[in-house]
Amino acid sequence: MNKFVYIVLAFTSIAVGAASFSYLTKKPLPDYALYYQEPRALNTFSFTDEQGQAFTNKQLENKWSIVFLGYTSCPDVCPTTLQNLNFIYDDLTNIASNSQVLFVSADPSRDTVDKLSQYINYFNKDFKALRADHDVLFPFSRNLGLMYAINSTDIEDKIYGVDHSASLVLINPQAQIAAIFKPEHNIGTIPVINNEKLLSDFKKIVSLY
After folding, report:
1. Is there a contact between 55 and 128 (Cβ–Cβ < 8 Å)?
2. Is 5 part of any domain?
3. Residues spanned by the domain of 171
4. What CATH number is attached to the domain comprising 151?
5. What string of DSSP letters covers 38-73?
6. Could you give the number of structural domains in the chain?
7. What sign results for the dihedral spanned by CA atoms 163, 99, 32, 44?
8. Cβ count near 85 (within 10 Å)
9. CA nearest 183: which of 174, 175, 171, 195?
10. In-domain check, residue 11
11. Strands 148-150 and 128-131
């Protein structure tokens, strides 16, 4: 009798385990983001934040980080993207309370710590802004799958624009690259990311983690 009970319990445990595995594997994948089912490694880096403090890989641990590459003199994409992130910041933190938004300057020669502080606080005092010289910035942005370029040779007078990616990169709480959210390109409009699609995919990615 005891042997029969053990057999029943064993089959029950197997059934429960199979059901749990089935549930986990049926969680929906993101619909819009470029999602890495095997997260990509993020190389070691060291930036300075808007408060003049060091910001390294350590500050990414145990947080969901949304990273945007831009510059404070940007006339369109940067302010629009940061404003949109401000609009949905409460929604992001409702999905994952350990969420943070990071604005990384692609223009370190003009974007000083003080300038970054004033700029980022205009959008949201919880957002962070980071800067580093190009020897750190370029490999970091390339590691994320983002690019930037100074589009003028008039560097000495500091009158130039910066071409840069309009995508957002999501870094998971293990400080690994989890996904890239790409903007929608429509003729005559600024390339921006759809907030509803971002929130929908963010929720799915957090659930899959």
Report:
1. yes
2. no
3. 32-208
4. 3.40.30.10
5. EEEP----EEEETTS-EEEGGGGTTSEEEEEEE-TT
6. 1
7. positive
8. 21
9. 195
10. no
11. unpaired
CA 209 to chain centre: 15
Identify the three-state secondary structure at position 102: strand
Q: Which two tokens stand for residue 118?
A: 């004033």
Query: What are the pLDDT digits (tens) for 50-103?
Result: 999 999 999 999 999 999 999 999 999 999 999 999 999 999 999 999 999 999
Decide: 130 and 171 in contact? Cβ < 8 Å: no
> H or E stretch including 90?
helix 77-95
pLDDT tens digits, residue range 160-206?
Answer: 889 999 999 999 999 999 999 999 877 878 888 999 999 999 999 99
pTM above 0.90, yes or no: no
Residue 12 is assigned to a structural domain of this protein: no
The amino acid at 89: Y
Q: Which amino acid is at 105?
A: S
